[in-house]
Amino acid sequence: MNRRALMSLAILTAVAAAFVPAAAQTPTGAAKPRPAAAAKASKTPWGHPDLQGVWANNVATPLERPKELEGRATLTDEEVANLKAVAGRLFDGNGDAAFGDSVFLAALRTPKGYTSSDGQTGNYNSFWVIPREFDNRTSLVTEPDGKIPAMTPEAAKRAADVAAKRREAPIGAESLTLSLRCISFGLPNTFAGYNSTYQIIQTPDTVVILTEMIHDARIIPLDGRPHLPSNIRQWLGDSRGHWEGDTLVVETTNFVDQSFNGVSALRIQGDQNMYLTERFTRVGNSLQYAFTIDDPTMWTKKWTAMIPLQSIQEQLYEYACHEGNISMGGILRGARIYRVPGLFSAASADLPCQAPAVQPPQHAAAGGVAFKRTVFHRRNRAVDQPERVNVISRAALHQLELLQPAAESRLDSPGDRDSRRRSEITSRYCS
Prior knowledge:
Helix content: 10-25%
Largest sheet: 10 strands, antiparallel
CATH topology of the largest domain: Lipocalin
CATH architecture of the largest domain: Beta Barrel
Oligomer: single chain
Low-confidence stretches: 1-39, 262-267, 345-414
Number of domains: 3
Radius of gyration: 24 Å
Order of helices and strands: HEEHHEHEEEEEEEEEHHEEHH
Number of strands: 14
Mean pLDDT: 75
Distance between the termini: 49 Å
Shape: globular
């Protein structure tokens, strides 16, 4: 596999060694990573604190403090033990997988059982998802008071508009989020337990942070150079780093406006005015990753969160997102069918037999018939497994499979061929 150069030749070999081939756009498996040997406080040969290695974010702590725990920054040891036990039962490999805050919230609110909130689309089985790590904190957000501040009125309206657009069938790929298009998960990325692994590589004047998810590489100069001109914008912004004692401080500006992606409880995207300050401090086998977001056109106050990354003795896997993104074709094909005037509603209203009602497809639901073959990787082993992408309800899937040729026929020539095909659909669906 050809690797793209991620930085200067001086560190190309180190960067290339970070990847182990394995088809991925899949969740990290349930096998728990082997913890690294006890780390000693150490320095690089040139005297900087040594942050190098592979770090994983598998923390279960929710981004914001749940309503049930308002006013409480921490849990008791007994409460933590109970949540861990409940999560172990809920996600023992036999039921639906949970992502993001859902693991903690399910253990807190629905101890008797968990069903995926993905609705018609289904979800991974929890067998494929790595166990999450519980600590005694009730939120990743530390300031102010465990909650993300309110959005400005303008940002709230923009977020509502984006949410409304997300409920419509997409016009094209550009209507979808950056993550669905396999471009980037943005900064900061708070997603845990799903390829949420990072490798840090250092040289005297540069730090490189490789992410397993969509294999982004952040190249951060430490030599004091100024930021790029404000008219040069990038998905991951323009980062500059410096040391404050044993803490690496990274300041990033010049973002592309990502507010069109919406404001997710898992991946936080600001607009072009976001100023991101990150602080990386090694404490034994943990790397305390704290970030502060200052975006006055998105939020009414600055806010800060801290994620404890754990050292693991593993390598990064290739995250072949674009290469395996077969679902994109299904999403756009389903949207094209749905936009044919009168055709989609006719499937449930005009057939001579009783047909289940079909709701208008949202982005994820419109994919219907997309499949891909993939290699799910659990840490230390790979399993060949067929994965169904964006599976909608059985009735809707059946109708989309039958209607697709009719839709394409109507788009091409709306004459006798369309009428003949409609008769075929009626016959097949009602048989």
